[in-house]
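Entry for the shared binder. Reason: the reviewer on the internal report wants the predicted structure included alongside the sequence.
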Amino acid sequence: DAIMEMACGGREVGFNPSKNPNSCDQIFRAQQIKSYLSISPNHTLPCTKTKPNTPLEAAKKAIHFYSMLQTEDGHWAGDYGGPHFLMPGVIIAWYVMGRPDEMLDKHQCNMMMHYITVHQQTDGGWGTHIESPSTMFGTVLNYVALRLLDPHNKHTPVCQKARSFITEQGGAIMASSWAKFWLCLLGCMEWEGHNSVPPEMWLLPNWIPFHPGRLWCHCRMVYLPMGYLYGARFVYPNAETDALIASLREELYTEPYESIAWDQTRHLVAPMDNYSPIPWVMEFLQNCLALYERWFIFQPFKNWVRKKALKFSVEYMDAEDISTNYIDIGPVNKALNMVSAYHAAGNNVKEPKVQKHMMRIPDYLWLAEDGMKMQGYNGSQCWDTSFAIQAVYECGLLDEFPDLSKKVWAYLERTQILSTEVSQDTPAIQRRFTLK
């Protein structure tokens, strides 16, 4: 119908990754257009039978279209997915925490399976992101995620093709480090197969050049829970008795799991994943850390300092969780912080902090015609809306679309951190104080 045609924006209904691996939000746009038309009989669809004759006419038509997509609170929402290594992390977290329904229900799981399936490439693999050629990083994580979502899909064509791809590349020991980290948490790889992520680094003086606090914010906040989980050697509590984990240990490797010399696999990575080979100095330092982890002469000191480092890490993660209301800086550390909170609570999924973490998972999820995905953040609403309204302003059309402009103003005002006396003298901040 006309609404669906408008929502598709010139594309065919449905999803065809061979033409374009990016979704165009057909589901969301159709819902918004229907809602827009139902509000008032004066609301109509832009005419698609005539073409604009001037740039200004084209701008008016475009803004008319986007006014239909504007959400009730004034922002423009949209798909912020793309990376293929985000959703497997939250699926693995869900599984090791006992598959709680309040975190992911069966409908969400089905839509996630659909997303992973339709993005599989013809060689059987998945890329690091939706426009990437297949990598072991993307393939191992998405294959594992598919198997966890449906333990009975081992012999489906999708899984068979993925296993063939993984086997051809030498098995999961050839995946890159983040994939190996998630496998260790799941119990599908031994921690000896992963290079050291010592939480003790946080206890170094801040002036040390390689102190984690000097890393870029996303690296720093991912290193934090990784260091905690590595230092605590967290493994899925039921790994040794779970039949699916036993099966995955067979499926992911080209030799028996028990015979793999894990320490010798730490530096292995498939050529397709090895974008920037580490220098020999880094490899030497990682080998030194491996000795620090296992040599008996270091154990008394390591055990003493690690206890302090783990305590520091938990406190730091608590601060991050509280300051962001359990959204955290991004989807990778969100899932890892949640598993860390679960472990720190004695593997108790009912612990309030764990419950608060699970409540914020939907903030990261998005549903489109290609299925359910995990976004790169909990959205880019303020960013997108500010650029959109700037374009309307540049066209000199704010007054021609007064409802759109007012809603955007109200949204941007509500989402600001109003810290000065002048900025606080606004209806938005006054409403906040009234609510309190």
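Summary line for the report: Residues 299-323 form the longest helix (25 residues).
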